[in-house]
Request: fold
Amino acid sequence: MNIENKSINEFEAGNKIEGFFLIKSVECKSSSNNKKYLDLTLGDKTGEINAKLWNVTEEEENYKINMLIKVRGMVTEWQSSLQFKIEKIRKADKDDGVDITDFVPVAPYTSEEMYNLILMFVSKISNKDIKNIVECILNESKEEMMYYPAAKSNHHSVRGGLLYHTTTMLRAGEKLCEVYDYINTDLLYAGVILHDIAKIEEMASSELGIVSEYTIEGQLLGHIIMGVKKIEIAAEKVKADKEIKMLLEHMILTHHYEPEYGSPKKPMIPEAEMLHRLDDLDAKMYDMRKALEDVKPGNMSDKVWSLEKRAIYKSEI
Reply:
């Protein structure tokens, strides 16, 4: 029997399959004869399928959710649904050359493109102290920024989502500064780049860009306070002016605007006000676009929790 490499939506009963899949759920259970087996849900970008690994060894019990694996097995039918009987299984590794975009949602641009765009905006910052603070924090965070999402489940919760959110805000901010030409672009660009960067410590994410949990520090402090601390430490390292440090900290501290969302102060400088508006606008526009992805023209989306439980209409225009 030929071994095939198919996407899940192409599976048919009787197919012998070998390929890479993402573990969406996994549970170790006991069969009627008291032997252990793994009950898994495997996924790729086309769909999901229930899978079984029978008579598991102690080592095989270590497979976890959000782990990328290579499997070989048979597609069967059980109670009118397709099921995958696993015969061989192992963790995927870097030498496999697997394209992560086949398994998880990703930003529409590569991480390298987006990171380079951020560096282009850094090059536009003329104030030496501001630039030094930004570069110091970016250098510490580059590796994680290449895959971190901007949230666990809300806006930009995709691989590279933090970079996507940041670069979209930078591009929008640059255009707005053509209208509001009294804005200090050094402060604004720095604020945009740094406003969510502490989410790297607030959330625990795999290299797939999937957040498993919030860290203890993230739960107790949150990325706003953690971001202020980052600026404090970086400013001390580069011996930045106290006024510069204070203004950047104010922008991070106020970007959620309301106390119930984590900001103890509201913006008191124009750059901080614009940072908040850009952040809020980008989040809402992302969630609106996502809500309409599978909606046919002339219809309403489901209610979106992050948009105050509003349904969104897809115009026929």
Summary: The chain has two domains: 3-96, 104-291.
